[in-house]
Structures are given as C-alpha cells and as structure tokens.
Amino acid sequence: MPGNVHEIRPKPADTEKITINLGFVDLGQVDLMVQEGFYSNRTDFIRTAIRNQLERHADVVKQSTARKSLDLGLRNYSREDLEAARRAGEMLHINVLGLATIAQDVTPELARATIASVSVLGALHASPAVKSALADRTR
Questions:
Q1: Structural domain harbouring 43
Q2: Model confidence over 1-28: pLDDT tens digits?
Q3: Is 44 in the same domain as 96?
Q4: What's one GO BP annotation on this UniProt entry (predicted)?
C-alpha cells in the first residue's frame, strides 16, 4: 500500500439483524398493511410494532435497567480503558443494555486479566478471540 493511503476500519453497523418466523396468516396481514400504504415494507411494520411494545412497557424496562445496574445505550471498552483497570488492580463487570464494544486491539489475555463478567442485553462486538476468552464469564 502506498505511504499516503490508509486502510479505514469499516464503521460498525448501528443495527443488528434478527430473524423471526411468522405464520402465513400473520405474514399475509403484514403484507396487506404494506400494500395498503400503512408501512413502507415488512421491516418498517416490524420495527414499528417492536417500538410500540417497548413504549408500552417503558416503565418496566426503566425499573429493570436501574435494578440491574445496566449501562443503557452504547458502551465502548478501549485497550486504554482495560490497561487503566489493570494498573488500578480493578476487574470490570460489563453490564449493558444496547451495544457493548470491546476494541479490536484488545488481546484475549488483556480481556481475561481485566473483565470479570459480561452481561449484554442486545449485542456484544468483540474479536472472536476475545469472545472466546470471555466465554466462561459471559451470561
């Protein structure tokens, strides 16, 4: 690679793909709502339905988040964060509702030396080696 060209790390996705199974009648009703113009596509319908249910249960989510001491949203753990924890003699307990990211330059050894437990409701982005190293500490 020439000296003035730098490889750019791809931006992580801000959504996570899930798969659901629907009965034929439910799927037909979704398609009808799309066809009638209430929603732009199936995904729009499903996202709206999920958001409506989350709004309906917002108080329960808020109470559970507080009770379980969860970080809400996006939480990034850099190599520097983990090295600082190691220098301080601290072990981290990762509790996230949303997206937890452990930087790609974190080694499995550093992760095991500084992360006591991992509980993520949502998604955990980390290298396969780090995920494997923390498998026994992940709930």
A1: 24-56
A2: 455 555 555 555 678 889 999 999 999 9
A3: no
A4: regulation of DNA-templated transcription
